[in-house]
User: What shape does this take?
Amino acid sequence: MAVYKFGTGVLYGVSSAANATPTAFGALQDVTLDFSFTNKELYGQYQYPLDAGRGEAKLTGKAKLAQVEAGVYNDLFAGATMTTGTTLTVNNEAAAVPAATPFTVDVANSATFVDDLGVRYAATGVALEKVASTPSTGQYSESSGTYTFSTADGSAAVLISYTYTVTSGQTISADNQLQGVAPYFSAAFNTTKNGKQFGLKLFRCMSEKLAIATKLGDYNIDEFDFVAMADASNRVYEFYLPE
Assistant: This one.
């Protein structure tokens, strides 16, 4: 009896590294697996071929997911260094320049400050110009999360944007590696309808694309593309069928 498939299914990836933690593709939107071959036809004097043979084969996959997964980003795609702790961004932190000297503002997270991302007047949205020191009207300088303003900007309401570090989360740091270096992984996919499950395993894969897209008024959907190949035992894939 035929088995129907419904929904996005579930997709897992397992890095080829020793004792790798399996990674589930979170909030999976869709999965596409494309099996394609190059056929070679043998022709005689007639229009249609006398015979045909398969040439090169290619098995590619594409998954779209809506959850940020450190395992997908690093173990299956980047193969880079992952450390505990991350960098966060503060957009437009409200502050008031003191009315008297010193005309300085320490941002809320100055203790773990990383980068300045600019200052704007709260009233107009006009950006202030950054200078090395001794700012004039409409200018500011910054050092380790301390912002200095002109005496003429005393009492001005400003919006400050910057980044700072926290001890939670993960940071993936990628260097420029030699060509040919990439993480390999196996993939397992399954979908269930009416208690019947269809499954597929890809024994050795390599990612070839990670697209991170944002959209106004909608969820961000990442696109993860990969290609399958034979493993050391010359295995490529297995189908698991209930009937």
